[in-house]
Write the structure tokens for this entry.
Amino acid sequence: MASTMTSKALFLVSFILTCLWKSSFEQEIFNPLDYEAEGDGVTDDSQALVDTWDSACEHHAPAIFLIPENTTFLSGPASFQGPCRVTPTVQIRGTLKAVDSISAFHDPGWIEFKHLDDLHIDGGGTLDGQGARSWPHACSYCKKLPMSLRLLKVSNTTLSNLTFVDSKGFHISVQQSTSIKVTLLNITAPGNSPNTDGIHISETTDIKISGLHISTGDDCISIGQGATDVHIENVTCGPGHGISIGSLGKYQNESDVSGVHVRNCSLSDTTNGVRIKTWQGSSPSQAFNFTFQDIVMDNVSNPIIIDQEYCPDATCVAPPSKVKISNVTYNRIRGTSNELVAVSLVCSQSVPCENVILQDIDLTMANNVTSNATLSTCSNVNVTAVGTQNPDPCLTKV
Ligand SMILES: *[C@@H]1O[C@H](CO)[C@@H](O)[C@H](O)[C@H]1NC(C)=O
Ligand SMILES: *[C@@H]1O[C@H](CO)[C@@H](O)[C@H](O)[C@H]1NC(C)=O
Ligand SMILES: *[C@@H]1O[C@H](CO)[C@@H](O)[C@H](O)[C@H]1NC(C)=O
Ligand SMILES: *[C@@H]1O[C@H](CO)[C@@H](O)[C@H](O)[C@H]1NC(C)=O
Ligand SMILES: *[C@@H]1O[C@H](CO)[C@@H](O)[C@H](O)[C@H]1NC(C)=O
Ligand SMILES: *[C@@H]1O[C@H](CO)[C@@H](O)[C@H](O)[C@H]1NC(C)=O
Ligand SMILES: *[C@@H]1O[C@H](CO)[C@@H](O)[C@H](O)[C@H]1NC(C)=O
Ligand SMILES: *[C@@H]1O[C@H](CO)[C@@H](O)[C@H](O)[C@H]1NC(C)=O
Ligand SMILES: *[C@@H]1O[C@H](CO)[C@@H](O)[C@H](O)[C@H]1NC(C)=O
Ligand SMILES: *[C@@H]1O[C@H](CO)[C@@H](O)[C@H](O)[C@H]1NC(C)=O
Ligand SMILES: *[C@@H]1O[C@H](CO)[C@@H](O)[C@H](O)[C@H]1NC(C)=O
Ligand SMILES: *[C@@H]1O[C@H](CO)[C@@H](O)[C@H](O)[C@H]1NC(C)=O
């Protein structure tokens, strides 16, 4: 009798332990194919994707939100929101394909993750924005074309091992977030596709980006207002518009941008290399503590450029920019420029740049058999030059 009791108790204990073990180690998989998705790349699976996420998000234990291999889910806008009981891991192994029609999109994002901590997205799969049909409308829709992936108010988050192609608007946007790591992504769109920035960052603190290959029609990486503590390393860019801090100062009351460090990157055939741009007539803010180090340029226009007279259309007002730029170091920047002016530092008349250092710069002319001579031009800045200087710093005045 006693021994039966003991064995029953033992059984019960081991049963409970097994359950606990299972719930803590075997992550439940949430697959849209189990939530009435077709996964045929033709049927709009948006609702099934959101339903799958919602179930994973409500699950009491760690779960995997899986986009399975060899499967394509066509989707309109899909917002995956938290907070969750436990944030699911997101594995995109297959393909998410955006619906063609722009009229399906009302929010800024196509695939959006929002209000989540400890979010991890990877899997080797693809986000195909199917932008080609929408690009001809980019001008009339300029701000409305949806970003392929929008991370909004996320923290302690990693995004890794994915391919992005042909976004309608930006490929990735990280906003109002903290402690983000972005690694091992390939981002590809045609060099003439409008506004298809690779990654845009704003109002975000502590973001590390490394191991990305970006070819696109706009900035490979753009860093907007309120971005602080940004580290970019091992990124290749081209074609595209380069790595850009800005445009800053377009709106009233923008937050400062500080602590942007770009290291060991290479740019090829881009329309800019490393750029800081601020709008004319902007309201006051600060942009400071930037380093650009170990950058290789190959056939780049404007390899090093500060443009505080940015005014892409005729509607800007004339007064000088009030964005104060300071503490900017360019160190070991080499390669080829495809324009004579390889270093252009055009600062604001009302708030001149301060503490700009050029160290070991070697930029020769690309594709020019007659001369390797490049030029630099400066206004409203006193440059500190250290080490090798090719071109000679600021020989011409604007
Ligand atoms: C996906 O397709 C590849 C190539 O056809 C195949 O080798 C692989 O086993 C498939 N994976 C799954 C999970 O079906
Ligand atoms: C990327 O994802 C694929 C498919 O899941 C996987 O085989 C590969 O190991 C991953 N690569 C890295 C660097 O994690
Ligand atoms: C991010 O993780 C750190 C360390 O685990 C934690 O202290 C912090 O609260 C997390 N951030 C947010 C916003 O949850
Ligand atoms: C990105 O492209 C590189 C080089 O072609 C390749 O080795 C890598 O696996 C690709 N990464 C992904 C996530 O597909
Ligand atoms: C950049 O690449 C080098 C060489 O492959 C590697 O040692 C380094 O860790 C990488 N940096 C980051 C932040 O991944
Ligand atoms: C810089 O990046 C290249 C590849 O992009 C890598 O081979 C090299 O080791 C990296 N160097 C450092 C110092 O990280
Ligand atoms: C900018 O900030 C000032 C002072 O805080 C405030 O009065 C004004 O309304 C703000 N402007 C905008 C456009 O937010
Ligand atoms: C900017 O850099 C200076 C000098 O390295 C440092 O003292 C200061 O704390 C930095 N500011 C910020 C906001 O990181
Ligand atoms: C710029 O750097 C100097 C030290 O080199 C530091 O004293 C100053 O506070 C920095 N400026 C800003 C705006 O952080
Ligand atoms: C080549 O260099 C010469 C001399 O500096 C310059 O006049 C010419 O415009 C350059 N050609 C190109 C294609 O940039
Ligand atoms: C320009 O520089 C390249 C690479 O340093 C060199 O091979 C070439 O001979 C130079 N051309 C002239 C005209 O100096
Ligand atoms: C450059 O230095 C000179 C001499 O110290 C000074 O008069 C001038 O105001 C400085 N210009 C700028 C833009 O800082």
